[in-house]
MFS transporter (Kocuria turfanensis), 422 residues
Amino acid sequence: MTRPALDRPARATVLGLRQNLAQFTLLVVVNALVGGTLGQERTVLPLLATEEFGLDLYTSSLTYILAFGVAKAATNYLAGTLADRYGRKPVLVAGWLIALPVPLLLIYGPSWGWIVAANLVLGISQGLTWSTTVVMKMDLVGPHRRGAAMGLNEAAGYLGVAATAMATGYLAAHYGLRPAPFLLGAAYIALGLGLSVLAVRETRDHAHLEATGHVTTHTHAHGSLSNRQVFALTSFRDRSLSAVSQAGMVNNLNDGLAWGLFPVLFAAAGLSLGQIGILAAAYPAVWGALQLATGALSDRWGRKGFIVAGMLTQAAALGLIAAGSTFEMWLVAVVLLGAGTAMVYPTLLAAIGDVAHPTWRARSVGIYRLWRDGGFAVGAVVSGVVADAFGIPAAVAVVAALTAASGGVVAVRMRGRDHTGA
């Protein structure tokens, strides 16, 4: 006779990518859907601002990125705290539920204020969903494959962004800017919510298991830290954590520039919607695909070198975009920009996981992501003001200089090797 379900032994909690492959793979799929939900906007919204709503000032048209960045940054911090207190899965599900009205607001919004409101809601959703998938993968794999795990996570997310940016460019070219591109986003949200509710399992016990055997070289990295102490360490006091946080902010500063102004720059040069869609997709596609290698290689070779080289590569790519005027030159530049970002993105997350103790790692990841996604807001303001005063190429050049300077900060401030090769 089959024993009652209550008599069956619970699944053993074990760490490792191979040991948790089914759940890890499911979370990769979920994060691809999270990325696709963001990707529905990458090609279409900048053109919607100018062509349908007639916004002439770049500072006005970039308000949706400002709203998104502020909301996502604040929610990242909250997500880490909630995940430590209530568990990872409830936070993930809440993020998908909050995303439900976003496609409707984008499709039916009669004024630009509705679009900004949609991005405020989207930022909250992305802060909860993307942050939680990051933390859950860190929980599952343990300390030895963290870079590989972050590479897979971020690759899935940004390949989702890229594929959707390409698809929405095609849909916009054939069926108009609304509603067709945003129906794709609605499908992603429904599927992501269903998978998260029905198939994703809680991973907080994996973090507790890792904490019992956590070895650290830092006297402050024990588990009994307040939220204020974790914020101070991640933002300012710890050399590696603070260097990583500022690099993340500058990275997303230039991503906000790419999201908001590149399609407008390309359209002004006479490129077709199809060409703009290719350029909008190539950057996150290269970024996403190469993270499969860069995250794993940083486990072997260390984090610092990848971060410094990636920031300098991004700066060089932005310089080429500022100087460019043709589809071919811009394609080379966005591929280079994607490669530089791939070197940085999973490595920054893995470096946070290396230093932060498992019992406050979710909070530290949330604080890092607060600074990182605050870069969207800073980028919207800086690039918008400079573009209005001096043109888009000047804004790109300014952001290129900031990106190079950020790489210099990492070179000087970050410790060479932390824990598992960081």
